[in-house]
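We close this part of the discussion by returning to an individual protein. The sequence in question and its structure tokens are set out directly beneath this paragraph:
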Amino acid sequence: MMSQLRTWGHIPLILLVSGVSFAAAQEEQWLQYCSAPEVSLPGIDVGWRQLEVTSRAPTGVELPDFETQGQLFAKWPTPMVPAGYLWIAVDRSGDPGLYDQLYIDTDGDGHLDDETAVPNRLMTQYNVFFGPVKVVFQIEDGPVSYHLNLRFYSSGDRQSVYYSSGGWYEGPITVGGAKMACVLWDGNTNGAFDDTSLDSSESDRIQIKQNKNPVTLFVGRYLDVGGTLYQPEIARDGAYVKLSPAADVPRGRLRVGPGVTTVSAGGENGLFVLTPEDGICSLPAGTYRTYEWTVARKDDDGKNWRLVGRGASRADSFDVTEGEVTELAIGEPVVATLKANRGKGAYSFQQSLRGKDGEYIELTCNGSRPPAPRLRIKNKEGTYDRTYSFAYG
């Protein structure tokens, strides 16, 4: 389900080339707003975030006439309202019963007594799903809509509210004279679309697709499209983007480990997917964290092997200084560990691959997971000698 909530159409940006400058680079390129109860955007991680709940009613908040007793309350953080959050309450339509109704401060006035209960759309053993729920932010240009998908989880003594964005912006834009598809995603699900951060989980996402190849990047000071660097301006509410060619950008160099074929580094400057030449690559000066790296090579039998490292330590950031070289210890070797657990009459084994900074390693051969390893067991006397084949699972 998609809903376009704005009445204006797309305003195209025409980039007129004269030397190396773009005369119309500051024009706004408008996007369309969409919403759905279950969002699936290729190349974009659409996940859930958790809110802690409390049984204590919020002080100074006018509440609706609940049908039962024992409501639970939570706060959804958003910079789009003066208070910095919106109150949520979950209620039961029967006593006793499941928490199958939800209230949220949709108009941002700090109260819930003027709200209507949101019915659930799906119930499972432990979860009750709501949404997409529309909330309205009052911004300088007037009201703007945003949608949240919400999930109430209950199992034993554990109760939580989970939330995920139910709305995004998309549409065609013109970059360097070429028409491309653009998607804006609220990566940290706080109602704004222009958040930048050193922490990738707190950065919003912008996806640019030319032909059939989408590239998803962090929202940041810069945007690399096809090797050309732009300075983006993204509306706080996500309604439009502006792209200006970046000039006189201070740059430093990054030296990576031998054999590294690609590395992506992200921070407030944005996300850069780099292909080192002789172990060296260039990017704008700033502070970064490694997002992903790959090592690819072909063996003697012509098979294509690929290592991908993800999930390096969040505390391990590095600085790129103008005119200097920064050493980044990524790539091989990786460490393989094997754990054996003895159960009732059987052993179970767990194999893992980790990088130098604790990265999770994915290993593929010709694009697929290679066959599971085999284990040979032989006793000292040589009377027992068998080879077993592992299976993933």
About this structure: Confidence is low (pLDDT under 50) at residues 1-25. The domain at 250-393 is CATH 2.60.40 (Immunoglobulin-like).
